[in-house]
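Q: What would this chain look like folded?
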Amino acid sequence: QVQLQESGPGRVKPSQTLSLTCTVSGDSNTTGDHYWNWVRQSPERGLEWLGAVGGGRTFYRPSTESRATISRELSKDQFTLQLNPAIPEDTAVYYCIRGTSIRVVPKKPEDLWGQGIVVSVSS
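A: My prediction, written as structure tokens:
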């Protein structure tokens, strides 16, 4: 059974780098047709797609593109998200998703979501 698990610090100070890792287990097709996405959810903005890597390309939400870096480490079956610098508005629950495309919001049955990790950006 394929599972995704987010990991990283639960709290980051403003101006530091928010760095999260998603570890994929049970997926034999780590180099295949999937898109590896990051989404966050907060009461203020709801579900917000941040970006994805797949198909030999990397995609970003325009409003966070200048601060975001998404990368994939095939040897470790992991992909990562960095937001630098972190700002208080980055406080949210962060999800990694294995999707059939970069359109993972709204949720689709064929996409696989991690459980989510709470990240707070505060001093």
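The CA atoms of residues 15 and 22 lie 22 Å apart.
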